[in-house]
Amino acid sequence: MSLLLPYEKMWDMPLGGTSDEKQVPHWAGNLIWGFLAFVFKICFRYRVDNRESLRGFKDKTGVVVIGNHTSFLDVAFMYLAGRPSQWVRFLGRENLFGNAHGLVGQVLSRVGAFPIKRDAADRTAIKRAARMLKNNEIVGIMPEGTRRGKSDRAPELHSGAAFIAKMGHAPILPMTVRNAENVKRKGERFHFPKITIEYGDPVLVGDFDFLPKEDRLDGCTWYAMRECFALSLNVPRDEVDMVALFPGGKDFTAVFAEHPVPRHTTAEVVADIEAKAAAKAAKAAKAAEPSAEHEAKLADEVRA
């Protein structure tokens, strides 16, 4: 019975996408989505802007959705924004899935989350995420790791999202959950502001090949996160002060001012993917032609 399915097994099962393998049972995820959508709609009157940027990738390619992390509710809103027609697979810190949090691990696994080790290169999680992308699934990541303001540590960017996108041959889609930071400020009671979830335009890892090899993933992450903050602050990307947001981190402002990164729409990215797939199929068909001709010649010789 799917009710008794060990949640560890669900980490390697598809959820959405185009894989023919047995999927994570949808019933629990649908119940959780319905409950959260109902409660959050009443409490936060949330809306989703530019959702077509995500919808356009459905069944065409995997995509890594990233966002700036200002609230403990960011992940929930990122999940809700994809439903009902798309599932977002989240990377969650490993201790949420341990024995001490068995119920939490079961719930998270059924909505598509899977664990990743903090402060370590978790190859298992990276391979899982890349496989999901190759099956045209969505992987959600917060490159800041810990939400902003949770600790006294200076915020920093982690390039895992860009690395996973590269491994899975997938675009990165920036998004933001605007106003989520006002739900619960330190030392204050809960508030229920109106929330807006907004998607930007896709970012391609390959567009950063002009950078030195050691800077490509960091530069891609920096650029994509600047898009997230531009959406969050509702300002042009050039007005986002990444040095102030990430003091001590690498700064690519001058580099990208001198070498502008190409802009893409979801429709353009999908059209390019389909064109490459068609060209690959045509090449394979052409390569098979001599073999077919040879078989026909042999058949003629046999008949003779």
UniProtKB/TrEMBL annotation:
<feature type="region of interest" description="Disordered">
    <location>
        <begin position="285"/>
        <end position="304"/>
    </location>
</feature>
<dbReference type="InterPro" id="IPR002123">
    <property type="entry name" value="Plipid/glycerol_acylTrfase"/>
</dbReference>
<dbReference type="GO" id="GO:0006654">
    <property type="term" value="P:phosphatidic acid biosynthetic process"/>
</dbReference>
<keyword id="KW-0808">Transferase</keyword>
<dbReference type="Pfam" id="PF01553">
    <property type="entry name" value="Acyltransferase"/>
</dbReference>
<protein>
    <submittedName>
        <fullName>1-acyl-sn-glycerol-3-phosphate acyltransferase</fullName>
    </submittedName>
</protein>
<feature type="domain" description="Phospholipid/glycerol acyltransferase">
    <location>
        <begin position="63"/>
        <end position="180"/>
    </location>
</feature>
<feature type="compositionally biased region" description="Basic and acidic residues">
    <location>
        <begin position="291"/>
        <end position="304"/>
    </location>
</feature>
<keyword id="KW-0012">Acyltransferase</keyword>
<dbReference type="GO" id="GO:0003841">
    <property type="term" value="F:1-acylglycerol-3-phosphate O-acyltransferase activity"/>
</dbReference>
